[in-house]
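Lab notebook, bench 4. Still working through the backlog of constructs that have no structural model yet. Next entry is a single chain of 470 residues. Request: give me the C-alpha cells for it.
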Amino acid sequence: MLALVQLAVMATYSLTRYDQFLTAGHDLGIFDQVVRAYSHLRAPIAPLKGDGFNILGDHFHPIVALLAPLYWIWDDPRMLLLAQSALLAVSTLIVWRFTRRRLAPGWSTVLTVGYALGWPLQGMVNFDFHEVAFAVPLLAWAIDALDRRSDGELAAASALLLLVREDMGALVVLLGVLRTLRRPRRIGIVLGTAGAAWLVLVAGVLIPHFSRTGHYAYWDLPGLGPDAGAALRTAIADPGTVLRLLVTPDEKWHTLLFLVVPLLLLPLLSARSVLAVPLLAERFLSARPALWGTSFHYNAPVWIILFLATIDVVGRPHGWRRHLLGSALAVTLVVVPVVGLVLEPASVQSLLPLARLVDGSAFQTTAHIRDQAAIVAQVPAGVCVVADDRLASHLTSKDVVATFGLTNRSQDFYAIDLSQPVLSVEPNQKTTQDALRTAQAEGFREVARAGTVVLLRSPSYAGPTPACRP
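Model written out:
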C-alpha cells in the first residue's frame, strides 16, 4: 500500500510539473527522443543534443531501452515521468522487505515511510527523467540480495546496474569487494573483476565508438589531472589535494550533512556505506557546480545506499537500544518532514518540493503557462523546430526538436520564450535574444505571439515533411 501511495503522489507531482512547463528539453525531451527511437527499433538519436547525435556516445545507458514497450501504449514524454515514479516505488518495496527482516513490523513500516519521504527522492521527481532512476531499485535489490546471501540475485542486479550508466561499474566492483568478506569468495572476485573490466570497456571503447568526438566527454576533474592515470597519480602523491577538493566549496559538505544527519550519522557504522563513496567522489571532485548540491537527481542513488546501511546498523542492537534508535529515526525521517510539509510548505519547497502539492501551487495555472501552451498548440506536427528548453518536451512527441546552436539542418520554426535569459542549459548558453536575432536574420517571420513567447516560421516552409516526424 505504501508503495502505491508513493507512486500516486510522485506521479501526480511529476505530471503537474509537466503541465506547468517546468520540465525541460534537458533531460526529459532528450530521453523522450531516445526512448521513442528505441520503440521504433531505431538507433537512439537525440536531436536535442545535436544533429544525428547517438546518445550512447554521451552516457552509456542502454537500460532505458526497456521503457520502449511503454511507448507502444502511450507515445508521450509523460510516460517517462510515470515510469520514474514506478521505479522509485519499486525501490520502496525492496526497502520494506530489507527493513522487515531487521525490525518489528511497526518500525519497518515507519522507517520505510521515512525512506519514501526522503528529500533525495523528492529531488529526483522534481527534475524530469534520468537514467539513474533505474539505479535506485537496482541498488536496493543488490544490497538486499547481498544481505540475504542470494548470489544469483546479486549477480543479476549487478549485471543490470552495468547497463544503467558507465560509473556503475565502480559500484559493482565494491559489491564484489563486500561479497568477498564471506566465503565462498569466488562470486565476489568475479563481480569485482567484471565491474572493473566493464568500466574500462565502456569509458574507453564503447562510448568513444558512438561519440562523434571519439572520446569520453565527461572527464571533468581538472583539479586531479587530464585523465584517469593522472588523477590516480595525484591521489597517491598528493592526497591533500583530493581531500581539499572533496570539501570545498562549502556546498559539498553541506550536501553530505543533509544526507547523513537525518540518518543520525549511522551509515558511517556500516560497511555497506562504502558503495556511496564512488558516487560522492565523482560528484564532489567534479568541476561542475550542478553536481555538488541537494538539487536534481544526483542524491537518490546515494540515499538508497545510506538508508539501507542505516537499517543495517539499527538492526544490530536489541531491546531499548533498538527502540531508541528507531524512535530517533522516526523523528528525523518522518515527523520533521511531515511537519515541514504541512505547516511550512512554502519555506521547505527547495528541499522538499512535494510541499507544492500541499499548498496547491503545483496545480496553479498562470498567464505565462497559458501563453506557453498556446504557442505549443500553434506548432504543426511533423515539422523541424528549434525550441526553448521549457517548450521542448511538449513538442518532441510530434516534431523533430533541436537546440539552438547545436543544429545545422534547415528548420521550419523557432519557438522562443523571451522571458528566459538562455534558450537551453547546454554549455554554449545561447541567449533567447541571440536566437531571435539569428532567426530574423535568416528570414524567419513571427507568426504567433502569446505574452513573451513567440513562434517564427521559415520563409521556405512548405508544410510538414516525413523527415521532421519524430
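Notes after review: The first strand starts at residue 384 and ends at 387. Residues 2-356 form one domain. Flag for follow-up if needed.
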